[in-house]
Amino acid sequence: MPNSKGNRVRNGRLRLRAFQVLLLVLLLVIWHVLTSPTLLPPIYFSEPNQAAFFFGEPLKVFGRLWRWFVSGEIYEHLWVTLVETLLAFLIGTVFGVIVGLWLALAPAASVILDPYIKAINAMPRVILAPIFFVWFGLGIASKVALGVTLVFFIVFFNVYQGVREVSPVVLANARMLGASPRQLLRHVYVPSAMSWVFASLHNSVGLAFVGAVVGEYLGSARGVGYLIHQAEGFFDMNTVVAGIVLLTAFALLLDWAVGLVEKRLMVWQPRSIETERT
Amino acid sequence: MAPVLALERVSCTFLSRDDPSERYTAVDDTTLVIGEGEFVSVVGPTGCGKTTLLNVAAGLLKPSTGTVTVLGRSLGGINTRAGYMFQSEALMPWRNTIENVVAGLEFRGVAREKALERGDAWLERVGLSGFGKRYPHQLSGGMRKRVALAQMLILNPQILLMDEPFSALDVQTRQLMENELLELWSADRKSVVFITHDLEEAISLSDRVVVLSAGPASHPIGDYTIDLPRPRDVAEIRLTPHFIEIHTKIWRAMKEEVLKGYAQQQRQ
Predict the structure, then answer these.
(1) Minimum CA–CA partner of A177 in chain B
(2) B72 and B173, same structural domain?
(3) How far is B213 from chain A (nearest CA, A)?
(4) Nearest residue on chain A to B59, alpha-carbon basis
(5) Residue B263 and residue B176 in one domain
(6) B183 with B152, same domain?
(7) What is the pLDDT along chain A (278 residues), one digit of tens a residue?
(8) Which letter does DSSP use for residue B136 in this model?
(9) Which residue in B89, B107, B76 sits closest to A184, CA to CA?
(10) For strand B23-35 and strand B3-15, is the pairing parallel, antiparallel, or unpaired?
């Protein structure tokens, strides 16, 4: 009966989720037991409060998160960080796609620019942050610029590779079917590069976040990175960890959104199919 | 009868990209003339430059020397009168079946509705109606070949260039496809250049079989007219005495070249 099989699949997935949640709970309990000043005699640290000082305490971390959202204090900062991340992500991706397509289809330009691209890519680009502060000030723009430099190269290299890897037979076939150079770009090169772009977008969402948060951390008056930096100044480990948890959650959310778009646009890609087991 | 496609004294020499002094002549001094409505097969041992020859006819490859004439005009650029069916997968994987079939019409600016109408008709002709929304990876090898056939024929080309189109299929599917090809072809008798390494396939389909020598510098060494009656069934015709007679004759000429080609591959 197909219905019971569907149920079995669903049960299997449910069990997997249960194990994942269990693991999380287990880790939280271990964290709690090891850092709580009263539950265990101090194993490593001489002071009972020292473990909490270095690693924070889970209950206080969640208390902090709770107060952030209840008081509404966090929204302004979260909003700034998200705007910076999304802008960096979008601008970096658009530029990456355009430049990637251009260089892949203009061999002369790519040969000339090759050593420069390699050099810029090899450079630790976070170092550019102070320069961006001078150029764009301490507001959103400097963080976006930093994120763009990180995202751009990931997308760019993937598009470049994607165009290079276009099947020569598919290309020849499209030409025989009468495609003009423009139509080749639109109907062969771009769709072929898309699978590479999406693979890179998962990476670049994370890097857009890195750009935004590192930028805030180094100099700003708003944003989650700023909150973390400030808390660190007071040795408030609970707030630092709360900020990290918050950023991780939103990075996962963005990654999931990218996956959703990918699933919609990449229906043509073969997915591995599992056989039904009874 | 005016030739539809004429390759005259065509040679193709490839230079190695790393070492320009290393040259490889795939095709040497080859003349191949295809008449109107003629089904010509080109056979030869593997690696003898059959595909190179077809790419020259398609305008995808410029010959080192020699000329290509299509319907009395010298060919520069892509041969727009020709349809090409490739040996390997050539469908656009990001387009579903119907979108693949109408791709050529879309490139030519045919109105969407009209293109889809003709696309549906062609899907039905190749036995794939109802599969329009499937993507290539969801189809079997034989079905993908049918899509490729429809994709080529919808543009109504005067010349069909086919590069071992059925070589990846199993024997049963292959004979089925060959019969379907003959049926589609007999409807309006286009000129066909059919590349294969399978002599039986060549004889059962063609009006004429051209045998190429082993590479490098391969060239035609035999030209045989196949006077088997049409319409043919490719599976049945293989059993007739006349077929076997023709096969024996051509095979005798080919055998030496096949051995040569084999020896060459061993050396590499």
Answers:
(1) B104
(2) yes
(3) 26
(4) A176
(5) yes
(6) no
(7) 455 666 777 888 889 999 999 999 999 988 888 887 777 666 666 776 777 777 888 888 899 899 989 998 889 999 999 999 999 999 999 999 999 999 988 888 888 988 988 888 888 888 888 899 899 988 899 999 999 999 999 999 889 888 888 899 999 999 999 999 999 999 999 988 888 888 888 888 888 988 999 999 888 888 888 988 888 888 888 889 999 999 999 989 999 998 888 888 887 877 655 555 54
(8) G
(9) B107
(10) antiparallel
